[in-house]
Amino acid sequence: MAETVTLKGNPVTLAGPVVNVGDEAPVACVVKSDLSEKQIGGKKEKVQLIITVPSLDTPVCETETRKFNEMLKDLDVDVTVVSMDLPFAEKRFCESFNVSNVDVASDFRYRDMEKFGVLIAEGALKGLLARAVFIVDKSGKVCYKQLVPEITQEPNYDEVLSALKSVL
Predict the structure, then answer these.
(1) pLDDT in tens, 57-70
(2) Helix, strand, coil: what percent of the chain each, to 5?
(3) pLDDT tens-digit profile of 15-69?
(4) Which end of the chain has fewer surrounding CB within 10 Å, N or C?
């Protein structure tokens, strides 16, 4: 059964399987701002922080990406912020706000983030990604998940940082 979140208080259904803590993280292919592809999820040499946002062109997503960029600069983590924004817009965003400590990537090509159950399936934002944070350990297991219940709100940064530090 798909999960739901809200957009300004109205329920919105998400497409894809529900991925929970303890599950194997699906492998997804996203496109970085230089148009190269990046595999996220699955087993890796580093702990992964996978952050999904609807669009970098919104104030909440901008703030979230900038905060994670600053918060995580000294941690040895593979961080990827994924949206449906085109790589060209992502590159402009990163240059405008000096975002260089996290990879900003797009799911426009393969729409693989549906494997994580975060693709918005209905309403005004249909086709975009819900706001969520996944921590994937080196073995490829999801060890933390925060699906932000209201799309217009920021995630709980302190909780993410605490969970991340417990895995490192």
Answers:
(1) 999 999 999 999 99
(2) 25, 30, 45
(3) 999 999 999 999 999 999 999 999 999 999 999 999 999 999 999 999 999 999 9
(4) N
Task: Report how far residue 16's alpha carbon sits from residue 13's, in angstroms, rounded to the nearest whole number.
Answer: 10
Full-prediction pTM beyond 0.90?
yes
Sheet of 142-147, strand order: 37-40, 28-32, 103-106, 78-83, 48-52, 132-136, 142-147
3 state DSSP class of 158: helix
Catalytic residues: 61
How many angstroms separate the CA atoms of 63 and 30, rounded?
22
Angle between helix axes 59-71 and 157-167 (nearest 10 degrees) is 30
Q: One-letter amino acid identity for 20?
A: N
Q: How far apart are CA 72 and CA 164, in angstroms?
A: 10
CA distances from 2 to 54, 117, 142 (A): 18, 7, 18
Helix (H) or strand (E) holding 60: helix 59-71
Q: Which residue in the block uniquely carries the two structure tokens 């799309």?
A: 151
Q: Provide the token pair at 43.
A: 């087993």
